[in-house]
Amino acid sequence: MRLNQLKRWARRTESKLLMIVAGLVVAGLLAGLTGSISLANRAAVLDDVAGRNGPLAAQALDIYHSLADADAVSANAFLAGGAEPPELRKRFQDSVGLAASAINTAAALNRSLDPGRIPAAPANDCRSAASGPAAEPIALRLGRLSAGLSVYTGLIETARTYNRQGLPLGSSYLNLASTMIRRDMLPEARALYDDESTLLEASQSRARELPFVALPLALLLIAALILVQVTERRRTRRMFNVSLLAATLTAVLATIWLAVASLSAISNASASGTDGTAQVRVLAGARTAALQARTNEAVALISSGNNAAYRAAFDAQIVCLRDQLTKAKSMVSQPDTISEIDAASGRLVPWQNAHFAVGETEKAGDYAKAVKTAIGPTPGSSNSVAGAVDDHLGRAIGQAGARFDVAVHDARNDLSWAPAGFAALIVLTIALAVAGLWPRIAEYR
Amino acid sequence: MNPRQRTGLASLVIGVLLAATGCGETVVPPAAPVPVPRPLPDGVHDPADPPPPATTTTNPSGCTDPRDSYRPGPAHGLKLDAIRARQSLRVGMGQTTYLMSYHDPVKSEMTGFEVDLVKEIAKAILGDPNKITYVALDTPDWKAALEVDQDGTLINKNGADIDMVLGAMTMTCERWATWAFSTEYLPAGQRLLVRQDSGIKEIEDMGGRKACASTGSTNLRYIREAKPTNGKPIGVVSANSETDCMLLLQAGVVDGVSTDDVILAGQAAQDKNVIVTGRFIVDEPCGIGMRRSDVDLIRFVNGVLAQIRGDDLADKSGTLWSQFYGHWLKDPLGEGTVPTPRYRD
Known about the structure:
The structure holds two protein chains of two kinds. By secondary structure, chain A is mainly α. Helix content of chain A is about 85%, strand content about 0%. Chain A contains 13 helices and no strands. In chain A, helix 2 (about 15-80) runs antiparallel to helix 3, helix 4 (about 140-165) packs antiparallel against helix 5 (about 170-205) and helix 7 (about 240-300) packs antiparallel against helix 13. By secondary structure, chain B is an alpha/beta fold. Chain B contains eleven helices and 15 strands. Chain B has helices spanning about 5-20, 80-85, 115-125, 140-145, 175, 220-225, 240-250, 260-270, 295-310, 320-330, 330-335; strands at about 70, 90-95, 95, 100-105, 110, 130-135, 165, 180, 190-195, 210-215, 235-240, 255-260, 275, 290, 340-345. Chain B starts with a helix and ends with a strand. Chains A and B meet through helix 4 and helix 5 of A and strand 3, strand 4, strand 6 and helix 7 of B.
């Protein structure tokens, strides 16, 4: 076809109409594709958050907490002397079992993601070391934790055997095991949790991105449809083209669906962060500080006479715990969680008092009474107060975790039919638009 | 492009697509070997840091032999009366040195050679061997608890409130400048703790092997000064405590631990695979540390020790000292020699 032939063809009304139809079809396809992809992507990210990132972060937290708990329990069991009380032994075994199964579950979840994932450097709170462990593949961290756990339980059993014979090597092996947990394994588990939280937060922020390509394109489609109707009306002097009107209506419906589903999912995804993940992170920091303070208190008694470092560590952990609780309270707006945080905060002064009493009793030379003040079953004993703090924080973390689950679930539900529904409405729009203009073209044939 | 080439290309494309999408056969990556953590106590230095430059040790006037103490004296005096008024003897001692001074978690009481000695002293002062308050006190806290000015008040206000300190404390002239000692109650010396089957008998057999002692102790110096028979140097390892050294010995990280034999005895008693061996690399006589202002107490304690050792007896086999030594230390260390007291006045 020559150029002037083409120009002549284009001047014909029939051709102009054909081009308008083609334009509408292209605009429809573009809006339909980007919209569906945007909705489907968001749903996929939320699936990852709900099914993998979220559970992985939760497992990492379980690993961390159960290791710290095993450490605290074994120190307390040791203080009880000779053969440790059965309930402490059971709690120790439960903690080790939970740590092992959490490591396994985390490894399985990690394999379902990208096994070589190396997360970005994590944010920090009140850990003493300014530089955390370097970024490493999560599989390697999990492998080291798994190997470390078996070495750790071996040390604890050695300590137990010596301790049952009343030999001081028992306390030496217990110290070694505790050192291994605190120096090697807890920082590793902590890094794992930080890694997972960072990845989770990255996914959450992807789920919060505005549909800034899909929504303008859908609006453009509506504008094009209106423009075509206005020009058609002027050209044919007919009031309405029913098909085109219907096409506009379906396009508007599709756009509203896109906007409402996306915005609602975005709002739920950000709630999963602010009401869930962010709170869990600070509360978990507080709970850990509490457990480590508890361990330091017991180890200070075990290594009596040589315990200034452990006493200083206890004080530092209590300061950290207080900071984290203040921070947590400023982040939380839910009354149930606030009351748990307040209850935990309220125990800090009694705990410090009990701790002081333990130290004074020990200084006065009454070791047996000091141990009783530390781990006795009375409500005022250091151990009971620490246990209450741990329970309150555990419940607060549970509540924040539940809010995370609900918000992510809601966000995912907002999107369940949206990608398919949006696509169907846009296809309908295209069909109606073509159907509305085709008779006009046929008039010129 | 002939048909065969075309099928070849097609299968190549399909193969690349499959590989890219991860479809097709699942490739199981070989399990990466995980480095199994080796549990070491905190503060282990292998090799140990080089020793600090030698400080000129001031030998205070009046101390020619650190074993010299005050002659036994009467049962009354300022300090002795204060203890009787309080009805309790306050003793600073470690609680983790097995066979010497150890808090037994099963019996929930203090046990050991030094505990038996202290009970005799409490019995002599207060008439009751159980009127003792044990204050947990380890080497770093000795100076603060014992150093007094001319008026007899503690120089360090945070020092522990005690009447005497036991802890296999070596009598030295340097320490006499700061506090005072009783007469010698146990002859000790730096020896070696090794695995029974190691063939090591003396420090000179440790060429090319590793020996451990606690960081900052004089024991490290004597390990460094040893001349191994095979000409190879001894690897010097330092740890926070002798107990940590024992853990390293059990883990096979070091081949020997070197410190006071009476401390090594406690380690050997807990593991039948290790023994105390070798001569005294250096003498480290044990005395009870007391404040310089409490001369009445020191004299009285020396009288009690003279009774325990049986200083006046030709045959020492029936003495309390032989009884205590036989009960606690004879198994790991062999026959002991009753120390002979030396007096400065």
